[in-house]
UniProtKB/TrEMBL annotation:
GO terms for biological process: chromosome organization involved in meiotic cell cycle; double-strand break repair; telomere maintenance via recombination; telomere maintenance via telomerase. Keywords: Chromosome, Metal-binding, Nucleus, Zinc. The keyword Metal-binding applies. GO terms for cellular component: condensed nuclear chromosome; Mre11 complex. Residues 22-171 form the Rad50/SbcC-type AAA domain. This is Rad50/SbcC-type AAA domain-containing protein. It is found in: Chromosome; Nucleus. It comes from Schistosoma mattheei. The lineage of its organism: Eukaryota, Metazoa, Spiralia, Lophotrochozoa, Platyhelminthes.
């Protein structure tokens, strides 16, 4: 008879890491609209319909935070995973997203937005770029070693983080305006 020994301390730590990572993935999804890496079609992010033995599974991720002005806001994103054929991968569809905001004067506004508008509104409300949200604040555990990747990849991430391409474009625009003004004066 074989004896199985389970180290509960290791098991509990492993479960704690899984739960912590899931919470981080939900925070990232509600803030950026990005699915976790490795979720392929995204069905496994909410609940795979094949496991639930259902043709569709609906989910809602809600985040309550304060924006850069200190106003409380609630962000909600609704999803639906569908499984039409048992042998094929399911599909994930974003149903809707909304932001409910309470201002310091007591007003409450609620806006339903498309995904791209909601993503942009979150970037504005949080006061950081999407690159900072994805690569620093909500960096996935499997992707946390990105500074050790090949130089081209690291350079691209730093360019995104510091918005260097936007900076170069702004400098070019300033130079062009300066040249146009100088040529008009002569």
């Amino acid at each position: 008879m074989a004896q199985i020994i389970i180290n509960y301390k290791v098991f509990i730590n492993h479960i704690r890491n899984i739960v912590f990572q899931t919470v981080i993935e939900c925070l990232k999804y509600s803030a950026t609209g990005e699915l976790p890496p490795g979720s392929k079609t995204g069905c496994s992010f909410i609940h795979d319909p094949r496991i639930a033995q259902e043709s569709e599974v609906k989910a809602k991720v809600t985040l309550q935070i304060r924006d850069v002005k200190g106003c409380p806001m609630v962000v909600s994103r609704a999803l639906m995973a569908t499984q039409r054929d048992k042998t094929k991968q399911g599909t994930l569809k974003t149903l809707d997203g909304s932001i409910k905001r309470q201002y310091s004067d007591g007003r409450v506004t609620s806006v339903s937005l498309r995904c791209t508008d909601l993503d942009q509104e979150m970037v504005t409300s949080l006061g950081v770029s999407k690159a900072v949200l994805e690569n620093v604040i909500f960096c996935h555990q499997e992707d946390s070693n990105w500074p050790l990747q090949e130089a081209k990849s690291v350079k691209q991430r730093f360019d995104d983080l510091f918005a260097s391409s936007r900076y170069v474009k702004a400098l070019d625009a300033i130079r062009k305006c300066k040249q146009d003004n100088v040529s008009c004066e002569t």
